[in-house]
Amino acid sequence: MADREASPISQLLNTLGITREELHRRSDQMRQFLTADSTYSSRVSDRDSSSKSSSASLLRSASLSTMSASTSARSFSRASSSSMMDASPPPSTPIKSEPVDGSLPQRHYDTMEEVIERQRLARKERRDRKGRRDKEKNFKTPRSHPRSPSPSASQSSAGFGSSLGSRDERVDDGNRSNSSVAGSHEEGRPSPPPLTPQQSKYYRAHTASQSYSSLVKVNPKRESPTPIRPQSLPVSQPGLHYYYAPYSLSTLYSSVPANDEAPAAVELATPTPTRIIKAPASKSSPLPPSSPPPSSPVSSPNKPIVNLVSSPGPIGPLPVEDEYDGLPYGLPPGPYSPNKPECSYAALLGQAILSSPGHRLTLQEIYDWITIVYPYFKRGETTWMNSIRHVLSTTVCFRKVTRDRSLGRTLWAIWDEDLECFKGGGFRKQLCNDIKVKDKPNANGGTKRSRKTSEGGGAPKNKKAKKEKEKEKAISPPILSAPLLPLFPPSRPTPHHQSYYESCIPKSLPSEIIFPPLPSSSGYRQLADSKAAAQASSAVAPNSEPLQPGRDDGDLDLPPSGEDKLTPPHLMSSSASASSVPSFLPELTPNDSSSSPPVSSSDMEVDAEANLGVTPVSISGVDTDEDDGGLEEQDVFTMQLKPVRFWGDSDKQEGALQPGIQLKYIVPNSVLATDDEDDEDLVKATKSKKQKRTKDIPASPTLGLRSNPLKATRAAKNTSRLASPPVTEGPSTPPRKSTFGPSFLSPIHTPLSHRGLHMSPSASLAHYKSNLDPPPCVSYPEKTGDNENPDEDSDNDPRTPSKTRSAATSSALPVTPRRLFSLSDSPFRTPVGKSSFRSIYDPHDPTSLLDDELHRMGAAGHGDSPAGLFGKSRASLLYDSPGNAMGNSPDKWQRWW
DNA sequence: GAATGTTTAGTTAGTG
DNA sequence: CACTAACTAAACATTC
């Protein structure tokens, strides 16, 4: 390549009679142009990768040669990066290179023109497609069952796919196609044909009908919530959109790791940037009736971004936030496919919950999220809603967090410990700590009903044991964990939002990994951690980079963080999400293993801009992961925060990455590996209140257990629906326990923490679910150790509100156990109210400290924020920030992601 | 009464 | 064929 680049470029330029400067200029123009027409761009990117590639290649080459990374370069950079990636990864679009070589001379101009034409075509196609889709939708009625796995998936793809045509298509395809290579995981289930009729059986008529109608509008009921997919765009956009989140996540993780396909790495990045907005705690869906939100995300400014080519220049504004204001969760970018997601309900729940900064949402919010992101599900439909509730109730990983009534209904949270279960946007029970535990003890074989099983199996005693263990762990956590763990739990409000990815970060990973990725949120945590981490890191990994300040910085960067402090969580969240790039970084987190492509987190650099959120952010990183199939090389990823793509596809899509934010990170191989640890404990007990159960706690929290391979496989399969079985990840365990980790704050916790003690109305069910565990420990500083019984604890606690029970529950605080910790933190820190939470924080909290710093930094200018970190890498990377639109979308998801 | 949550029962499908 | 996972349905209970 080098050869080409150097000479060819100059040749081309000469031929064209253009100077580099001009070239840049032109590229900028192009970009803008494209940006304007997002759809077009997206399409172009997808489809015409060739064209794009050609243009890009030119630019790229130019940029490379020049090294000038002017903004113009960005787009290119993306391309280039992709190209690079491509090289490694098979799948990546072949196209790129070709164009360049082939038609060099002529094309130059052509490219622009072509692009334009393409745009036109794209638009037309879009329109056409739209029309088709609508029609199709009508026809399609029943969706395949989610479960029915494959079929549905395919369906989506198929349905649209066909129409869409573009390779992007759904993630599924994406996976396959993209990673076509990869397909390994999913391949198993190729995407089947789109809808399976049979399934209809399960689905009620209404479902079908609704689906159709969905486009139109949602349901009567209140929910404004779902605005329905925002855009029809989706349609137009070929593949990309469609599966955003789920796929993306899954894809990313799963595919990546498994496959070597380098692309995966890229994908990771993509995780969606969700924007998080924070909503108040309100129960009801925050969504405005108008529900711009949905659309906005996608459609709005950014969407276009999607691709490519153009990068985004300056997209600037983040309109989004406004639109979404109030949303307590982040939404993945991109158009939302109306097709039924392949993911299981549990996966959807995980995506939804993890999209929130605090990793917790009310049922209502969950519904909203789902309806927005997966227009397939309409409000008012009983089936899926019932199923959702069912899953929430029966799945151990979904912890019920009771809170003051005044605050609203209970929150459903995912603890950090369980993040692994949701890696990749999918859901794997096996990874659930509780389940793991169970398995060991009872050997129940993780069953579905975790809860039940748990109940049955677990003995209450375990709780104590667990707690103790937890304590112990906290005390002597492995180094590994330390860094990763988020120290501070984000309260709900917290913006960080590190996606669960962050949380997922392998403990083992040295700080490096940790770093930047965790954006803001992480930042906090990390800060806290950082200290510890530093130690750890030093100890642990020499890896690539020692904890450099830089990294840390990165963490710190978290622009948002500053915000956090200042702003109320919600605000923060939104802003944060949006603005803070970092937040999304987390997603990147690689998990361990291979799979998690996300890896990323590690050395990522984030553009200052990105951090700011304002401008497009690009983050670039290089991944060295093993994941990729052992790519020893470093892979460069770009992540877009916002852009549409989902998570998944990215691979090929460079385009996908494109824009928004590109992240590059490098992850040392070494880093990736992690072990698990699971431990965790917690247990939840289910409670059935009255009846049966006592809650059981899994006996041994011990770590090791993780899923059995067998199970894993199965799980993978099962989960597959999601698409990707994240499998590999095993290693990455979430931080949970990290030593420090214990940070209390895991997002999860937060809520509870906020609440502090009070909360729980009924101790029973909710209580257990939510509390089960550790929380108690955490909650009380002193007690932390003790509380075996939450209830008791509560009683003991003076603090506890009057209600004994409730108190107990409160004690139970959902917080993840790990947090415990310590020392530092006062349990209290958690904010009470969403809004207020901050106030509550302890001064001592690292979080606070971080915030302050962030603030300062922010004030100064994001620019650098973390910058330091990135600066270096970036340069090396060549990336420019894309400016893409999304710039901000900080969120990311977390995720999802 | 509606929204939530919890449970139980039954179906389908994949896997060993 | 047995298991298990994922879903669907529905009955019940609780809360607002």
Automatic annotation (TrEMBL):
Task: Output the SUPFAM superfamilies linked to this UniProt entry.
Answer: Winged helix' DNA-binding domain
Source domain of life is Eukaryota
What taxonomic ancestry is recorded?
A: Eukaryota, Fungi, Dikarya, Basidiomycota, Agaricomycotina
One GO molecular function term of this record is: RNA polymerase II cis-regulatory region sequence-specific DNA binding
What name is this protein filed under?
Fork-head domain-containing protein
Species this protein is from:
Guyanagaster necrorhizus
Give the matching PANTHER family: FORK-HEAD DOMAIN-CONTAINING PROTEIN, FORKHEAD BOX PROTEIN
Annotated DNA-binding ranges come to: 340-432
Q: Does the keyword S-adenosyl-L-methionine apply?
A: no
Chain intervals with Basic and acidic residues compositional bias: 107-122, 166-175
Question: InterPro entries recorded for this chain?
Answer: Fork_head_dom, FOX_domain-containing, WH-like_DNA-bd_sf, WH_DNA-bd_sf
Q: Where is the Fork-head domain?
A: 340-432
Keywords, A to Z, come to: DNA-binding, Nucleus
- Where is the segment annotated Disordered? 22-237, 278-304, 438-476, 524-630, 675-827
